[in-house]
Amino acid sequence: MSLVLTETKDAIGTIVMNHLQKRNALSEALIGEITVALERFREENVRAAILRAPAGVKVWSAGHDVSELPDRGRDPLGWSDPLRVLVRSIQEFPAPIIALIEGGVWGGGCEVAIACDVLVTTPEATFAITPAKLGVPYNLGGILTLMNMIPLPVAKEMLFTAQPIPASQALNLGIINYIKSAGEIENFVYGLAAQIATNSPLSISVMKEELRLLASARTVTPELFERIQGLRRIVYDSHDYQEGLDAFREKRKPRFEGR
Ligand code: LCV
After folding, report:
1. Cα separation, 242 vs 134, whole angstroms
2. Known catalytic residue: 64?
3. Which listed residue, 58, 129, 168, 171, has the most CB atoms within 10 A of its CB?
């Protein structure tokens, strides 16, 4: 059974994440289908894409599929981790991707959403960044995505509390572009996509890539990189990392001991 529904019409591609039994948890299988759809859109010279869940969902995405996170001792968010692959696919896709968001966006789902170029949500949407809740050491690229999109004090609050923020606060902070009611969001998003599709695809794809390259342009010395990787290793080698995974799998609250 396919985990996504896709459609291409008038040079606008739509991907509906449709693994509702697992609340669109970003499993390797779901991510694989999304990236295949994006590749097809690229071949079809789609001029705008929309990433969404079915209308009316309570959860847009439950974030990284926790059951696929490795046990302690291995970096859970390395370069080839499916979630990292998906974020890069979105950021490197030549046409703008609009995230049409209803419901809760959790963990890595937030990074997928803010990796999109324009975010439009319903008033009930919420955003929760959850590594601290699971005991996971977020990775360098993920932290940079968050730093580029969210004011630092708010990024720290979201990372340290792991609590959801409402769409209204995300709008005030400029994390999302619009809030629209459930009855108007679809027409609004497709109107935005149609507007983009009438403009120069070459100009847009080059500006999107310029923005991506400049946003990620940071001086990261070997010492800085190795220091950060060493810090992250302390976490994913830890008792607490394993406890976070075990607690999720056993559907209980984790008991973190700081070791
Ligand atoms: C696997 C799941 C998941 C899931 N993985 O429905 O950002 S980081 O670093 O933290 C990164 C590592 C990351 O993204 O981690 C994941 C962060 N996500 C979360 O903390 C959200 C975890 N999920 C929930 O809190 C609830 O599922 C929500 C509130 C999203 C929905 O609650 P609801 O009561 O509607 P259930 O919890 O009953 O979930 C339905 C099924 O989906 C599975 C969950 O285990 C359950 O499966 P079973 O029916 O087999 O028990 N599921 C939900 N989220 N992230 N599986």
Report:
1. 9
2. yes
3. 129
Count Cβ atoms below 10 Å from residue 47 Cβ, excluding itself. Answer: 23
Instruction: Please pick, among 19, 103, 135, 138, the residue that the annotation labels catalytic.
Output: 138
Give the span between the Cα atoms of 93 and 195, in whole angstroms: 18
Question: Does the active-site annotation cover 108?
Answer: yes
Q: What pLDDT is attached to residue 165?
A: 97
pLDDT value of residue 164: 98
State the residue for tokens 């449709």.
Answer: 18
Q: Which of 106, 159, 161 to mutate to test the pocket of ligand 1 (most atoms within 8 A of CB)?
A: 106
Q: Which of 1, 85, 106, 107 is nearest to 38 (CA)?
A: 85
Query: In whole angstroms, what separates CA 75 from the centre of its chain?
Result: 19
Residues with CB under 6 A from ligand 1: 22-23, 25, 59, 62-67, 104, 106-108, 130-131, 133-134, 136, 138
Which residue matches tokens 């995974």?
A: 245
Active site residue 19: no
Index of the ligand 1 atom closest to the CA of residue 132: 10
Domains of the chain: 4-197 (3.90.226.10)
pLDDT (tens digit per residue) in 137-188 = 999 989 998 899 999 999 999 999 999 999 999 999 999 999 999 999 999 9
User: Distances in Å between the alpha carbon of 8 and those of 11, 52, 104, 158, 190?
Assistant: 6, 14, 26, 35, 12
Which of 13, 19, 63, 64 is an active site residue?
64
Question: What is the residue-averaged pLDDT of the chain?
Answer: 97
